[in-house]
Amino acid sequence: MKKLKRHIFTHARNIVVGGDVASLLWAFKNDYWVVFTNPTPPYWFERFPSGIPKEQIWDWLILQLNYRGKILGAYPNKTIRTEENILKIMTEGNTLLNYEFDNVVVTNGEMLENSRPKEIVDRRALVLDKYNLSSQRHDHVYYWVGDELINEIHFYKEPFSMWKKIDVVSFLRESQINSFDYDLVALRYKLQGILKQQLGMKGSKNGTKVGDLPLRTHHLIREIKFLENHKYHNEKNVRFITVEEDKLWNDKTEELWEKWSASFRWMDTNTTKNFRMLLG
Question: How remote is the C-alpha of 193 from its chain's centroid?
Answer without folding.
Answer: 30
